[in-house]
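Issue 218. Parser rejects a valid record. Input:
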Amino acid sequence: MTDAIQAQGPRLNEAAPAFNAPTTDGQKSLEDYKGKWLVLFSHPADFTPVCTTEFIAFAKKQDDFNARNTELLGLSIDSHYSHIAWMLNIKEKFGVEITFPIIADLNMAVAQAYGMIQPGASDTAAVRATFLIDPEGVLRAMVYYPMNAGRSVDEIYRLLVAMQTADENKCAMPENWNPGDEVIVPTPATPEAALARAEEGYNTVDWYFSTRAL
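Output the parser choked on:
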């Protein structure tokens, strides 16, 4: 049973798979990020154009992530030296410095644990997978993109802010929620509470759909 569960890859709202791996900033483990949010993201290969645009976007957004108590950690199935050379190349050719660490996952241990290897796409490269892990080490969100389409770093950041805000305010977020937008009030759990909802001072469309400002 355990093998079958592991074969499915990581699952939302369960402990993220532990890892201890070499990176461009020394050995890193999941435990090192305890108390912080972590955005762990994989890319197919160094020195490829789509991945380069994504790394530039993450680097430009890094201060915003850090301001939300969030660290960035990249990964690909390339060597430590390939990562370093690529980082230096991005700085030289694009004028952007990559300061977050990148896992060198040559044995594919982290990629396999996180389901980053998708046989339908490639047996030897990680797809564009992104995992948001909370300060307790729980996997809260995961997003997969195909090899030929770059992910939206702005959307990953928006998702992070939405989840953090929902946690802090015990609410849910509507489609494309952004700071300043109203949030969704939890739906009543009893017929009596549903009947009382219209009098509770929220922006109520119907008993199951109410919003409020933060």
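Fixed in the parser; the record now loads. The chain has two domains: 2-151, 170-214.
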